[in-house]
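[job 4417] fold queue: 2 targets
>>> target A
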Amino acid sequence: MNKLFFVMLLLLTACFEKDLSPESALKDFVDSRIGTVVSRDFITERVTGKMLQSFENMSEEDFAKFADMKNIKPDSFKILSKSCQEKKCFITYSVGFLTKEGDRTTFVSEVKKIAELVQVENKWLIADVTNIKTYHESKDAINPLE
């Protein structure tokens, strides 16, 4: 009985820890997007500042292109460095992913970024993301004439 109580308590704690740290909020955002199509509400609940404004101003067509990542499969997520103050945090991270067409991998990619996160009402939200470096490796020959 005590073991069951401990397991339930552990599961509840894990659910409540979500977004309590800037790292977990960022990782949850990245992990939740890769391999799926997300809604505008999903995005706007997790961003603030310049990011929120850019998503609110985005056309439905542009947002649909941004939100559709169902052909992307996760490969890696690494926090490289962070610099935090009380309510603001800058995190340098890299995301690795595979682009698939059916069962075939067409690209292997790694993107290094800097995310600015701000704490709003005890929740960490993404205020801005800057790309530092993008690396794509094509698994097929690229025809520049297409």
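>>> target B
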Amino acid sequence: MKLHENQLNLIRHLIRFNLMVYQDCLEMLDTDGSKNRTALSYAFRP
């Protein structure tokens, strides 16, 4: 899964200001229902 820069910025903003925890962000990104958090976490990496 490849995220657009604006999606990454929004997620980082939510985490930075404690509006959302990292695990919640991963669940939000799981649009296909795979529940594979490891694969989803790679979306944050360059």
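[job 4417] complete. Note on B: Residues 11 and 28 are 10 Å apart (CA to CA).
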